[in-house]
Design goal:
Elements (H helix, E strand, L loop, with lengths): L1 E3 L10 H9 L5 E3 L8 H14 L5 E4 L1 H11 L8 E4 L7 H8 L3 H11 L13 E6 L5 H4 L22 E5 L5 H4 L1 H19 L1
Parallel strand pairs: 1-2, 1-3, 3-4, 4-5, 5-6
Helix pairs in contact: 1-8, 2-3, 4-5
Length: about 200
């Protein structure tokens, strides 16, 4: 299982989540990349190459990491693992678009942040993907007027929708999703279902 981090992050913020998942039987590591300097298309391609080698690999992606995971899955026809995406702006982020319009915004967002503005292409295996969206609408997106309606302060719930995937909401802010005990449990339960299917 791989944890794919979000914008401005390094993956270290996922340490507690990985520890909780290990307690539930999942060995996990971090998929590390530079969200500011690397081209996200190339990052998704690198992840897709790992899925080609290990098609049963599970993914847990937060925010931009969820978008990268979804795009890697879209490039991986043989993938048969499961994925849990936490607060991913799969239909494009209004917050990213608004931030890019502010003075210095495009530079601040870097290459990864600018990639958040567009929608993810068609994804295979949606029935093996769970999206967990936050509904505690406090954060930068709300402050700059880009996160109206239900959302986690950065990403609106409607932006996390993926047809065919299971969708769960949790009253947490965008970054708090990674640290929430209940989110870890929901993640583990969904990944365990894959084991049950394999053993059936």
């Amino acid at each position: 299982m791989l944890y794919v981090h979000g914008l401005f992050m390094t993956g270290l913020e996922g340490t507690l989540l990985l520890r909780r998942l290990r307690r539930r039987g999942f060995d996990g590591g971090r998929f590390v990349f530079s969200s500011l300097r690397e081209e996200p298309v190339e990052t998704a391609e690198k992840l897709a190459k790992q899925l080609a080698v290990r098609p049963d690999l599970h993914l847990v992606g937060h925010s931009l990491g969820g978008v990268i995971a979804a795009r890697a899955i879209a490039r991986s026809p043989d993938w048969r693992g499961r994925a849990v995406l936490l607060g991913p702006p799969l239909t494009g982020s209004a917050t990213a678009r608004r931030a890019a319009e502010l003075p210095g915004g495009r530079l601040l967002l870097g290459r990864g942040g600018r990639w958040l503005a567009g929608a993810v292409p068609r994804v295979r295996g949606q029935d093996r993907i769970r999206v967990i969206a936050g509904t505690r609408n406090v954060g930068m997106g709300r402050l700059i007027g880009a996160c109206a309606g239900p959302g986690d302060g950065q990403v609106r719930v409607i932006e996390t929708r993926l047809g065919g995937a299971t969708h769960v909401t949790r009253r947490r802010g965008h970054f708090a999703l990674v640290f929430d005990r209940r989110v870890a449990r929901l993640t583990a339960d969904f990944l365990h279902a894959a084991r049950a299917e394999d053993e059936a």
